[in-house]
């Protein structure tokens, strides 16, 4: 029996990478009976007579799994946002950060198109970048030049399984195409002659980049907080989680309770007011969520 990682799933076949070779495998029937679907990113045990005829026998424990793209054991998400066109949005970034934190994935914030902004916007973006760095997030500022973005990002891919996510129209597909030119991902332009829209359905594949693996499909097409409860939200804001032990009440929601260390930190300017506002908005959104039966 061998061990490896599924790097591609297509038409009922699983392509398992192990010790420098890729083996085409089928899943065991028992997976279907138990309604278990092997996912790209799964660590598996498999048996194979040759590189075209193998069977996945066992799936290892998952650290996390995403629905879109369907992938397991993601180490980090490169959150790509632009300084302009579209404008940088802390509300949208914080939404992505909550989703990433809730899935036990490390975020790396990458703000592109810094060469297109005037001095005023540049200072504003740099101030935001400092806020997020203080929380402990890596923040990279890059230009429209895709190669520059890749040079800056490259060290972060080493030994990790990464997924790209973020705002629409900011250059995620361009970065992925630069990683692997064979991908030929559509970069937000609709091909009129073929009539194809932006959302051509594709299988998910992990592509090798240095010693790391990168999912070839941008993640998180749904930005709803479906799996997150109100009591989980505070732990998705690291600066609030860090202070929660100093709140007077255990299980403090940081909203109306007296002697709340988080609210004091907001008043003192230690936590940016926009971060706290987004926390309040997200809390209300989760609270108002209609139950799904």
Automatic annotation (TrEMBL):
It is an enzyme of class 3 (hydrolase). Binds 1 zinc ion per subunit. Zn(2+) binds at residues 247, 252, 254, 260. Keywords: Cytoplasm, GTP-binding, Hydrolase, Metal-binding, Nucleotide-binding, Ribosome biogenesis, RNA-binding, rRNA-binding, Zinc. Its cofactor is Zn(2+). PROSITE patterns: ENGC_GTPASE, G_CP. GTP binds at residues 112-115, 166-174. InterPro entries: G_CP_dom, NA-bd_OB-fold, P-loop_NTPase, Ribosome_biogen_GTPase_RsgA, RsgA_GTPase_dom, RsgA_N. Residues 72-221 form the EngC GTPase domain. Its EC number is 3.6.1.-. Residues 63-223 form the CP-type G domain. It is found in: Cytoplasm. It comes from the Bacteria. GO terms for biological process: ribosomal small subunit biogenesis. One of its GO terms (cellular component) is cytoplasm. One of its GO terms (molecular function) is GTP binding. Belongs to the TRAFAC class YlqF/YawG GTPase family. RsgA subfamily. PANTHER family: SMALL RIBOSOMAL SUBUNIT BIOGENESIS GTPASE RSGA, SMALL RIBOSOMAL SUBUNIT BIOGENESIS GTPASE RSGA 1, MITOCHONDRIAL-RELATED. NCBIfam families: ribosome small subunit-dependent GTPase A. HAMAP family: GTPase_RsgA. Monomer. Associates with 30S ribosomal subunit, binds 16S rRNA. One of several proteins that assist in the late maturation steps of the functional core of the 30S ribosomal subunit. Helps release RbfA from mature subunits. May play a role in the assembly of ribosomal proteins into the subunit. Circularly permuted GTPase that catalyzes slow GTP hydrolysis, GTPase activity is stimulated by the 30S ribosomal subunit. This is Small ribosomal subunit biogenesis GTPase RsgA. It comes from Bacillus solimangrovi. The lineage of its organism: Bacteria, Bacillati, Bacillota, Bacilli, Bacillales.
């Amino acid at each position: 029996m061998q061990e490896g990682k599924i790097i591609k799933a297509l038409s009922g076949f699983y392509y398992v990478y192990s010790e420098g070779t890729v083996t085409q495998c089928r899943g065991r029937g028992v997976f279907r009976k138990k309604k278990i679907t092997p996912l790209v990113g799964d660590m598996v045990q498999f048996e194979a007579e040759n590189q075209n005829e193998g069977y996945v026998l066992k799936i290892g424990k998952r650290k996390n799994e995403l629905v879109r793209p369907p992938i397991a054991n993601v180490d980090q998400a490169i959150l790509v946002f632009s300084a302009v066109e579209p404008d940088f949005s802390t509300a949208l970034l914080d939404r992505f950060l909550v989703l990433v934190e809730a899935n036990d994935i490390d975020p790396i914030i990458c703000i592109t198109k810094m060469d297109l902004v005037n001095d005023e916007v540049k200072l504003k973006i740099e101030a935001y970048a400092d806020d997020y760095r203080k929380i402990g997030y890596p923040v990279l500022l890059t230009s429209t030049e895709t190669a520059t973005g890749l040079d800056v990002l490259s060290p972060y891919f080493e030994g990790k399984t990464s997924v790209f996510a973020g705002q629409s129209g900011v250059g995620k597909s361009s970065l992925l195409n630069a990683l692997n030119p064979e991908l030929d991902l559509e970069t937000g332009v609709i091909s009129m002659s073929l009539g194809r829209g932006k959302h051509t359905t594709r299988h998910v594949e992990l592509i090798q980049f240095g010693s790391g693996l990168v999912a070839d499909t941008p993640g998180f097409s749904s930005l709803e907080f479906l799996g997150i409860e109100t009591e989980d939200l505070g732990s998705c804001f690291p600066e609030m989680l860090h202070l929660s032990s100093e709140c007077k009440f255990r299980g403090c929601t940081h909203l109306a309770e007296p002697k709340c260390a988080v609210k004091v930190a907001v008043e003192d300017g230690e936590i940016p007011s926009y971060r706290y506002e987004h926390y309040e908005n997200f809390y209300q959104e989760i609270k108002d969520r209609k139950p799904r039966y």
